[in-house]
Structures are given as structure tokens and as C-alpha cells.
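Can't paste images in this forum, so I'm doing it all in text. The chain is below; anyone willing to post the predicted C-alpha cells underneath?
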Amino acid sequence: MVMTQGWIKDNVQEGTPIKVARIYMKNATLAGDDLFIDNLFIGSDYDNYIRTSLPATPNGNFVYDVEVSKIDLGFDINFMAANCGHDFPLLGIKDATVLSGSAEPYSDIVVYGHPDFTAGTNMAVGRIVAATKPVTGSFELELNGKLVTVAADATAKKMKELVETNLDTGIVLVNQYGTCAGYAWDVEWASKGGNQPLIKVWCVV
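Text version of the structure:
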């Protein structure tokens, strides 16, 4: 992607030197999640990039790392996916035939056969632990009889807005922790002094 719009383009005369101290990029659609950039080019002319190899994206999931360890006659292979990638298909074996099971995401085991395998030998691929899906749903917060529904993936900004608007807390400071697999929030009273009652959390089924 080539950035052709922005404050610099609109306000700095072409050919005028400018000193850039910092370049900040953020994910505009999923705040707080990782942002992956293939190429970054700074210059006066457009540049062309040729992708020499396709990324590992099984079932559309971006894999940023793979861990492999030898266990007896097999291997333990862990795929590290970005942004809570899940529903991975099982590994396939080139030119092998599926004897039982399936390599589809819904399957936990598949058995392969191949003419080049030692007689009576098959190869099985099994799923030990499935990748964690992104947290979804919502929950309710209660304070002094007042309730507000909060999305399970609410940002710190959204949590602050909901708490201040619906629970009569005054100004609060909110920090969010965790990943797309599960979040936690710290809420600090900033304008109301003294001891405050605990905020109750209710599950929404």
C-alpha cells in the first residue's frame, strides 16, 4: 500500500526539505491488535515490490512463527497465529492419500498413506490443542443499582465512556490488558474521592 494522502502531502510544498522525527502507524480497524507491514518505502517516486514467496496463511490465518520439536517417532508442531487466528486445517503430506479422517479444520486427526512409505506404515497427523478463538459476547457491570452492558473486546476508551456515562462514577482512568483471547481492565476513580463500592460483574448468557 502506498500512502498518497496525509498532512505532509497537503501542507508541505513539493521539493521543500522536511525533518521527520517519528512515524507512527496503527491498526484503524482493530485497535490494540498487531499491525503487520510488508514493505515501507520513503521517497519521491513510487517503488515496485515483487513478493518472492507467499506468506503462510492456512485457512486465512497469518502465521508469524512455527515451533517444532522431535518426540519419539514424530514431531510436535505449534503454529503461532496473529490476531487469534483459529480453525487451522491439519497438515497435509505431499502426494499422500487420505486413508481416514480429514485435514479440514473441523477434524482432529487424519491418516495418510503413500506407496513410498515402508510396507504397512501410515502417517497420522493429529490436533492436540486447538487455537484459541477471539473472545466474543458481552457482560454487564453494576454499580449502585445501575447496569451497563460491555462488549468482551471493549477498548479502554470504550470502557471509560460506558462507565462514566452509565454508572455515575465521575471521571475514571481505564487501562486495558490482555490479547484478543481475553482482556482485563483497570478502572481508577479520578474525580470522586474516598472509598468506592466494588463494581459487580454479571455474565450475559
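The chain has a mean pLDDT of 86. The helical segments are 7-11, 156-166.
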